[in-house]
Amino acid sequence: xxxxxxxxxxxxxxxxxxxxxxxxxxxxxxxxxxxxxxxxxxxxxxxxxxxxxxxxxxxxxxxxxxxxxxxxxxxxxxxxxxxxxxxxxxxxxxxxxxxxxxxxxxxxxxx
Amino acid sequence: xxxxxxxxxxxxxxxxxxxxxxxxxxxxxxxxxxxxxxxxxxxxxxxxxxxxxxxxxxxxxxxxxxxxxxxxxxxxxxxxxxxxxxxxxxxxxxxxxxxxxxxxxxxxxxxxx
Lengths: 111, 113
What we know:
The structure holds two protein chains of two kinds.
Chain A: E1 4-7, E2 10-13, E3 19-25, E4 31-37, E5 43-51, E6 54-57, E7 64-66, E8 76-78, E9 87-94, E10 101-102, E11 106-110
Parallel strand pairs in A: 2-11
Antiparallel strand pairs in A: 1-3, 3-8, 4-5, 4-9, 5-6, 7-8, 9-10, 9-11
Chain B: E1 4-7, E2 10-14, E3 19-25, E4 31-37, E5 43-49, E6 55-58, E7 61-65, E8 71-76, E9 85-92, E10 101-103, E11 107-112
Parallel strand pairs in B: 2-11
Antiparallel strand pairs in B: 1-3, 3-8, 4-5, 4-9, 6-7, 7-8, 9-10, 9-11
């Protein structure tokens, strides 16, 4: 079945650690996106990529890094520089001119 | 303040009642997307509106975009418990922002049986 997968579903991080969230899609979509969701704030864009080997910062990129070495994969690293990383992270993908399809999300908690 | 404001922030209705959720933008929209989310899950695409005055329906949900393309409404007729969740509108600004979506804060809908 075609779709977007995110792993893990739940992730716990100790202060000072970097963690990487996985996002994979087999929809052959060019564009991929990472969002952060906090209660009462909707979704905020962290990074996006419209083509392989290229990506741009979104509205809240500080403390995060990404790579786009393959069309299917867009991993997000939450670094120790991110001061408040506890949140629900959503990955999405889209063809060039169409709606975004979302993965099931990863809930990250800092211990 | 948010670029995209949704109202109300939360809504509690009795099963069978009609309801409307609004999404207002401070800028002209290139495209407006409606999504539904169950708590702790990903977003499910509902509808996309692009033309001023456009209206689309799917089952008991109708979405409209006003002529000036700065406000959209989502209307649910004869609500059911399965309609409960968080409804989010997302705006595509077009131009150099093409493909990037800005989201409203969401409207939490509860439907009592």
